[in-house]
Design a protein that fits this description.
With about 375 residues, the chain is of the alpha/beta class. It contains 13 helices and 14 strands. Helix 1 packs parallel to helix 2 and helix 2 packs across helix 3. The longest helix has 21 residues. The model has no long low-confidence stretch (mean pLDDT about 95).
Length: about 375
């Protein structure tokens, strides 16, 4: 490895459980819309991950639904029954075969699930509160989950973890971000319950913590070697009422008190500023790193296209830097860094290079036709 100013990004990292990553760079989870209808991983997805798993120390997959009522996207792959373990094993092997640790992101979409993706066409959530859509309007009104259904979904997260272990993954990441079901239970916008699963802040923490406990219990029972458990969260919500920074700090405190291997902060822009709930005007990531200090390592993500961007992010005190869109644009991002060719890293998507980039058709269409999500080289 060439010694350069960017060498800190290429240093090894060891989790408290002893698992070691070859560097500080992580592939962020990104939905690719390319699995089979039965929830099995497609050949195109395997090739896409193989193309991107040779550099990063850890790869976090696109989210998998833990039960069929939580499918959030067309072409999403599943972990809701044992028949999918061979498919999951193919994916774990594809990632690990390139030298990265493989993390399965486990998920339930809740009220964000498109009705046409659901067996009964009915999204569910903590309460009958629809999501607010950009530009006005609302999503479908979800059906509030019963207590029995809630405990079933908590168990489903544990079962999906067992399947991840049996498939050979190195860990799981609980998807508690981006407005999906775990976040819906924590949010005062979507959770208006008055039972044990909602009400004050402590009751709104009950579901996220129960999911974490279910996952950790599955690890204790089934894992024969160290297995990573992470949790991804969005630090604030724009809605009123909505999650504030003060509530985000309470979530960080509660999760780290339970014990887990990392926190992953979901941000489109790493350096974005807080809206409310703190008197501190520094970027959210700085405040979260401070809150988690000594309790759990933090993964940061958000528009870090260049090596200089990633190095500046690491200097904030985060332990690992996640790259999502940058690895779509340049799958050789990490290798170029390691070879002293950081100046050759591409920061705009070449719209003529789909085959070279090994991006499946459904994801390619989404990338090219979503204004502003990726910088495009026309």
């Amino acid at each position: 490895m060439l010694k350069t100013e960017y060498s800190p990004l290429l240093e090894t990292f060891r989790f408290a459980n002893g698992v070691e990553l070859k560097n500080r760079l992580v592939m962020a989870p990104m939905t690719n819309f390319s699995s089979h209808e039965d929830g099995a991983v497609s050949r195109e997805e395997l090739d896409y991950y193989i193309r991107r798993s040779g550099g990063a120390g850890m790869v976090i997959t696109a989210c998998v639904y833990v039960n069929r009522g939580g499918k959030g996207f067309p072409g999403e792959f599943g972990a809701d029954h044992d028949g999918l373990i061979p498919s999951l094993r193919e994916l774990a092997d594809a990632i690990k075969g390139q030298g990265a640790k493989a993390i399965l992101q486990i998920f339930h979409g809740g009220r964000q699930c498109p009705p046409e993706q659901l067996p009964d066409g009915q999204p569910v959530s903590a309460s009958a509160v629809p999501s607010e859509l950009p530009g006005g309007g609302t999503g479908p009104v979800p059906r509030p989950l019963t207590d029995e259904e809630i405990t079933g979904i908590i168990a489903d997260f544990g079962e999906a973890t067992r399947r991840a272990i049996e498939a050979g993954f190195d860990g799981v990441e609980i998807h508690g971000a981006n407005g999906y079901l775990v976040q819906q239970f924590f949010s005062p916008h979507s959770n208006r319950r008055d039972d044990r699963w909602g009400g004050d802040l402590q009751k709104r923490l009950a579901f996220p913590l129960a999911v974490l406990r279910s996952v950790k219990e599955a690890v204790r029972e089934h894992a024969r070697e160290a297995f990573i458990v992470g949790y991804r969260f969005s630090p604030e919500e724009p809605e009123t009422p909505g999650i504030t920074m003060a509530e985000t700090f309470a979530l960080v405190d509660a999760l780290t008190a339970e014990g887990l291997d990392y926190l992953h902060v979901s941000l489109m822009e790493l350096w974005s500023l807080p809206r409310r709930g703190t008197e501190d005007s520094r970027p959210r990531i700085d405040q979260i790193v401070d809150r988690a200090a000594g309790k759990a390592p933090v993964i940061g993500v958000g528009s870090l296209y260049t090596a200089a961007d990633a190095l500046k992010a690491l200097d904030s005190g985060i332990s690992l830097v996640a790259l999502g869109r940058p690895l779509l644009i340049d799958p050789d991002w990490v290798q170029k860094l390691a070879e002293g060719r950081a100046n050759e890293i591409k920061t705009e998507l070449d719209t003529e290079a789909q085959a070279e980039l090994v991006i499946p058709d459904p994801l390619w269409r989404a990338l090219v036709h979503t204004p502003g999500w990726l910088p495009l080289k026309q």
